[in-house]
Amino acid sequence: MARLATERTTARQDLLSFAASVLGLEVARQQAVLTGRRELLGQVVEDVVHRTVPDAEARRRLAAHGIDPAVPHAVVLARVPAGPARLRALPWTLGPLLDRGGDVLPTALVEDSVAVFVPEGVDADATAHTVLERLRAAGPGVRVGVGARRPGVAGLRLGWFEARQAGSTGAGVRTAAPLSLTGLLLGNLDLPLRELGDSVLAPLLRYDAEHGGELLRTLRTYLAHDARPAPAAEALTLHRNSLRHRLRRIEELTGRSLDRLDDRMELWLALHAREAGGEATG
Q1: Cβ neighbours of 174 (radius 10 Å)
Q2: Does pLDDT of 87 surpass 60?
Q3: pLDDT tens digit sequence for 252-272
Q4: Do the Cβ atoms of 116 and 76 come closer than 8 Å?
Q5: I need a labelling partner for 95 at 20 to 30 A (CA). Which of 166, 227, 231, 243 fits?
Q6: Could you give the percent of the chain with pLDDT greater than 90?
Q7: For residue 101, is pLDDT > 60?
Q8: Is 109 helix (H, G, I), strand (E, B) or coil?
Q9: What average pLDDT does the chain have?
Q10: Burial bucket for residue 152 (CB in 10 Å: 0-12, 13-18, 19+)
Q11: Residue 144 and residue 173: Cα distance in Å, rounded?
Q12: Which CATH code for domain 193-276?
């Protein structure tokens, strides 16, 4: 919002009208500059999300727009039902409109959505509520999702889908629940499969790397044999007690129970998501 103030009432209405016109032109100019910046970053974000450029190029292009992928960022994603045209025409900003500095955080326009990238040290939830407040003028039903804070290009990519899933649950600000791989896959989204699988299986990957373990192979074999211990132990050339010990460790590290169908499905999808994303089965 912009205001024109004078010290006292003046009869020179022509001067006030002229000043108001100048102010209006400056607001329009600043809005056009901001929209251009947001759309340029939006093109970069689309390339990052859909993996149309290598990660090295993505890092370079993000850095040019003030986003250092090495720093963990949370993704705040707002969808405006009024549509892209309304979103681009409405004068709004995350900072003072006429401060010539633009948005206080990197902000992108992608179709009918606004994406804000929130680095460490900045409250992502407070940013999400600010975005909601500023965009309400575009129309009712604005949906804002907040993804978890992660580093790297893959972290931004994953945060985008996480925030989109959170925002799809209803109007207002919604914080992403623990990532549901099954929910995302069944939502027919254009997903970063490798990163999703890595997110779910990260504790097992770390354990195997640090201890020379075979928990990932054990899990894959166990699920491939329909969660039947005897044939899985035979395929792994393990005593059943050793297999049970590994399975307990897998449950402890992942926080999932291999006795529950939903959890087994989540882990099975994670394994196959990594393979679909380019991970060798090894």
Answers
A1: 18
A2: yes
A3: 999 999 999 989 988 998 888
A4: yes
A5: 166
A6: 50
A7: no
A8: strand
A9: 82
A10: middle
A11: 5
A12: 1.10.10.2840
For residues 101 and 243, give the distance between their C-alpha atoms in angstroms, rounded to a whole number: 60
Q: Confidence band (pLDDT; 50, 70, 90) for 98?
A: very low
Give residue-wise pLDDT tens across range 125-164.
Answer: 999 999 998 888 777 889 999 999 999 998 999 899 889 8
CA 254 from chain centre, in angstroms, equals 22
pTM for the whole thing? 0.61
CA distance 157 to 179: 13
Which residues lie below 8 Å from residue 237, measured CB to CB, with a gap of 6+?
A: none
pLDDT at residue 282 greater than cutoff 50? no
Burial (CB count within 10 angstroms: exposed 0-12, middle 13-18, buried 19+), residue 186: exposed
pLDDT attached to residue 117: 96
Distance CA 55, CA 195 (A): 13
CA atoms 237, 243, 245, 250: torsion sign = positive
Structural domain spans, the chain = 16-177, 193-276
Q: Which H or E element spans position 75?
A: strand 73-79
Cα 61 from Cα 41, distance rounded (Å) = 9
Question: For residue 76, what are the β-bridge partners?
Answer: 116, 146
Token readout for 86 is: 């309304």
Task: Please give the Cα distance from 279 to 256 (Å, whole number).
Answer: 22
User: How close are the terminal C-alpha atoms of the chain, in Å?
Assistant: 59
Q: Identify which of 234, 229, 204, 227 has the alpha carbon closest to the alpha carbon of residue 217.
A: 204
Measured at the CA of 85, the angle between CA 82 and CA 87, to 5 degrees, comes to: 65
Q: How many residues does the chain have?
A: 282
Sorted by sequence, the CB contacts under 8 Å of residue 212 that are 6+ apart come out as: none
Q: Which residue has the tokens 């206080």?
A: 104
Indicate the residue type of 38.
R
